[in-house]
Write a structure and sequence with these properties.
This protein is an alpha/beta fold. It is built from ten helices and eight strands. Bound molecules: zinc ion. Zinc ion binds next to loops.
Length: 302
């Protein structure tokens, strides 16, 4: 009897440790990629996000806890296109993980989507934080389709024993996502063409997809905060060409937006930007639902 129990314990232990060993460790740079890898990887992945919705993903500190997390990662899943250039290379260098640029486990989402806002001339002395173009690609739902496809391919190659599981999860996600896109496309029809003032280029993909017209940016250049003279220029510009809404994210400074709103009575909408950016945005589906609802509410009243 005693022997039997011991054998059972050993079997159970080795069974559970095999399961643990099969779980992929994913280091996502932003919450949207943690959410996407959980949609497709399901119970076979253990994902963390290096940043949360109230943190500016352009600038975080390479904390020791993040170095420890990236050291364990089988998959590093980020936006790329320079968004994490201020901290990801430093984490990689300190962690000495075998997963490095060029490896299968190093996945930069923007390499698989069209990239917009590529500057015609690059002049870093003017402080443009996005010389490679706009890295905030997740807010075009069509980009999510492209990234999900590549993610599924990589998961199967990194962890072949769960290939069919990932494929099933992927098919399920793609069906639901495509259905959602067709519902959202109908919902956004009524707000197309509205004029928007942005803070940073965080929402350009969303605005492009909806076909909203971004007529001004509160930042002087991407990464350069608003100045009094720049705000006055915008004020003058919108006197002749009024804007319908000012859009900011959770992590943008609000002063410029509030100053302009006070002068013009244009409403300010704080959009969630990513998972956790407001109470509703618990996953990618809810993130788009909430963003569209907020824009509709502000543009047409509740
Ligand atoms: Zn940016």
């Amino acid at each position: 009897m005693f022997k039997k129990i011991i054998t059972l314990i050993i079997i159970q232990f080795s069974f559970s440790s095999t399961l643990i060993a099969k779980e992929l460790n994913v280091f996502a740079c932003e919450p949207e990629w943690k959410s996407l890898v959980e949609e497709i990887g399901g119970e076979k992945v253990k994902a963390i996000s290096a940043t949360h919705a109230k943190q500016d993903p352009h600038h975080i500190r390479a904390r020791p806890s993040l170095i420890a997390k990236i050291r364990r990662a089988d998959l590093i899943f980020c936006s790329g296109a320079g968004l994490e250039v201020g901290w990801l290379p430093l984490l990689l260098q300190k962690a000495k993980n075998t997963v490095q640029p060029g490896k299968l486990g190093y996945f930069m989402a923007s390499e698989y989507t069209p990239v917009i806002d590529i500057p015609e001339t690059i002049d870093r002395s003017h402080g443009d934080v996005h010389p490679e173009g706009n890295p905030h690609i997740h807010l075009d739902p069509n980009n999510i389709l492209l990234v999900a496809k590549e993610l599924n391919r990589r998961l199967a190659l990194i962890n072949p024993s769960n290939k069919s599981y990932y494929q099933e999860q992927y098919n399920n996600f793609m069906n639901r996502w495509k259905k959602s896109i067709s519902i959202w496309s109908k919902e956004i029809a009524s707000i197309k063409g509205k004029k928007i003032i942005i803070h940073h280029k965080s929402f350009d993909y969303l605005l492009n997809w909806i076909e909203l017209d971004a007529i001004a940016s509160l930042e002087v250049k991407p990464g350069i905060p608003p100045t009094a003279s720049h705000l006055k220029d915008i004020l003058q510009k919108i006197n002749n060409n009024p804007a319908d809404i000012i859009v900011i994210s959770q992590y943008d400074p609000v002063d410029g937006a509030l100053w302009l709103a006070e002068k013009t009575l244009i409403p300010v909408a704080t959009l969630p930007y990513t998972i956790g950016g407001n109470e509703e945005s618990k996953n990618l589906f809810a993130l788009f639902d909430s963003s569209i609802n907020l824009l509709q509410d502000e543009l047409y009243g509740k």
